[in-house]
Amino acid sequence: MTDPTYLPPPPVPDAPWALFLDVDGTLIELAGRPDAVAVPPELPLLLNALDEALGGALALVSGRALAEVETLFAPHRYAIAGGHGAEWRPAADAAIECRPKPALAAARKRLEAFVCTHPGTLLETKPHALALHWRNAPAAESEALACMASVQAGLDSGFRLLRGKSVCELLPEGFDKGAVVAGFCTSPPFAGRVPVFIGDDVTDEAGFAAVLARGGIAVHVGTAGRPTCATCCLTDPAAVRAWLARDVLPACQRYGVPNP
Question: Residue 122: how many CA atoms within 13 Å on its side-chain side?
């Protein structure tokens, strides 16, 4: 694991890439609430151009519900994995594949009670997970984490806690972005390419590890904070968008589709 401060910038493609892109904190700036983020108007146009240059080998990989990611970028469509892999659309024109929804009603009631007594915290209910946010109430972090641990302990085995930036999620075992990468890389148009994962949070580390295990490139977004297994770094979402437009898109237009 390396301090991202000392990581070099990412390279320019010199072979066909498969791009796996986290959304919040990577393509778009974080906000105080998940529903308050803004998508720069030029971003969907950039993603459309990249998706075309890559022959469809571009996937948005998010902890958000798949429907929320679709709403952010509507009417444009891409391959998407939502809920850390609980929901999939393997191509822009494919059907959505979903895992069975877990039974989380009791856990939701307990977390709703916590939010009611801790102003500024927020419970985000997803199809396959519950996410407790404290970005607007940083003093509540330790209590929020203790509450999530208690809720997890009260459930049957098979659930885990996933910590992110001012958020902790309760979700079933087996959902992570590394499994997403592995799943996409087994079939066209992602198979046989250099896999590249770009993300900003601890939830993206599994994606980093998956692409590195396949000879790919892991790009961390942000220059401070926790160590990462990524091999290169960009400072913030604006830098990601600029790099994709300036360096990646022209190169992908040259190398995007492998020779048959």
Answer: 17
